[in-house]
Amino acid sequence: MQRLDGLGGTPPPSRQTSQDGKITARSIQAVRGMNDILPELTPSWQYLEDTLRRVIQAYGYREIRLPLLEKTELFKRSIGEVTDIVEKEMYTFEDRNGDSLTLRPEGTAGCVRASMEHGLLHNQLQRLWYAGPMFRHERPQKGRYRQFHQIGVEAFGMEGPDIDAEIIFMTAQLWKALGLKGAELQINSLGTTAARAAYREALVDYFRGCLADLDEDSRRRLDSNPLRILDSKNPQMQTLIGAAPRLPDYLDVESRVHFDELRNLLDAAGIDYTVNPRLVRGLDYYGKTVFEWITDRLGAQGTICAGGRYDGLVEYLGGRPTPAVGFALGLERLIALLEAEGVDLPDSSPHAYLVLSGEHGVRRGMVFAGELRDAVKGLRLLTNCGGGSFKSQFRRADKSGAAVALVIGDDEAKQGLVALKSLRGESAQETLPQADAAGRLGKLLGLELNA
Ligand code: HAM
């Protein structure tokens, strides 16, 4: 199986000398942390994407397609100057006009930018979703890549906890539709900007009191982004963090009421969750509700879905005040989880393989294949190309995973017949009129016919 982690070992030298002394260029490899998704894996991706799309659209969310490149300024302002993403992880470059552009590290900023630019937020409620690759120059490891894929959902114009609940219900529904069971929901409220400012002050006071015990990262964050200290994974910091002031104690009344009502809605829907007061998220635009779905089956990179409310962002980017909430799913991690949980994925092998021989057989067969695909709904039919003896064509048919081989030679072509042989099990070969083949195949494979 291909390695999804992009940890391909030491690259070979750029030129190599063969035994006869010739110098040859070495082949070029993918950029570290950016994966090819090979045909053996794409059926799982398609299953995942189709299922997610179906569920998200069942909630009335509409797709928006966004550029991969945005002006660097957009991410700096949205995600925050003092975040890991903006400080260390963006793929930023100057284009030929000297403009600073960045490959999107996430989708929310672009979605807000586009929605503002096209007037989608003015006096309207919007429920949007998007999909595609995101780019972060992180240290690659299992579950963490430099190009990874997200499906994101954003809802604009609704300030109550009901929309927070709706998108959390949606995520729970997504796991159900995918057949995933092992994820745990964690929620928290970050409060309003004012509440967070008060909490921030208390945190800074507390950490200043134990400056000598802070690691380098935390010291750096003390002035710029002290809440992120709580996110530190350094084991030596954990006791200190454990005794730090707690965000819930600083929540304003408005945020507390919002959060309590969200909890009531989740309880009423029977959705299990844990309140994690240390959940702060790595992007600056959040306020009030934040949440993550976490699994312990994927090692260190166990967050499969994350999001929350960002009521201030639209205004901060120059729009009218617009409440907003959303989340994004990490598709690589979901694929890994589908595998880890042993979820049965739909078979994507061809149903049937058409063996062809003789000049008439090939001519008629290629047309007949098209007729069959038109007639049988969802039929995956491989036509033999490139000739070959019956034996080698049957070998290819077997290897393709098809359940049925169809055969048209010159005789069958002239008589309007086709031979049909099951490739799984022992049933005898049968010969039937080509006109009856669609009906017979449909029955055999459990596929419907087109009207
Ligand atoms: P995020 O937490 O940065 O949030 O990313 C969301 C999800 O993307 C993560 O939970 C994870 O599954 C996946 N992910 C992130 N980085 C990587 C990586 N390097 N390799 C593989 N997967 C990764 C956001 O991006 C926000 N825009 C979510 C949001 C939407 N909030 C409101 N609306």
- Give Rg in angstroms: 28 Å
Largest sheet: 8 strands, mixed
- Counting helices, strands and paired strands, the structural category is alpha+beta
CATH superfamily of the largest domain: Bira Bifunctional Protein, Domain 2
What does this entry look like structurally?
The chain is of the alpha+beta class. It folds into 2 domains: 42-192 and 252-340, 2-Layer Sandwich (BirA Bifunctional Protein, domain 2); 352-445, Anticodon-binding domain (Rossmann fold, 3-Layer(aba) Sandwich), CATH 3.40.50.800. It contains 15 helices and 18 strands. It has helices at 42-58, 72-79, 84-89, 108-117, 161-178, 193-208, 216-224, 238-242, 253-268, 313-316, 331-340, 359-375, 390-400, 410-415, 434-445, and strands spanning 15-17, 23-25, 62-63, 69-71, 91-94, 100-103, 126-135, 147-156, 184-189, 274-275, 289-294, 303-309, 324-330, 352-356, 381-383, 404-408, 417-422, 430-433. The strands form 4 sheets. Strands 3-7-8-13-12-11-9-10 form an 8-stranded mixed sheet. The protein has a 5-stranded mixed sheet with strand order 15-14-16-17-18, with helices on both faces. Strands 4-6-5 form a 3-stranded antiparallel sheet. Helix 5 runs parallel beside helix 9. It is elongated and about 90 Å long. The structure holds histidyl-adenosine monophosphate. Histidyl-adenosine monophosphate (HAM) binds at residues 106-108, 136, 138, 144-145, 148, 150, 152, 154, 303-308, 326-328, 330, 332-333.
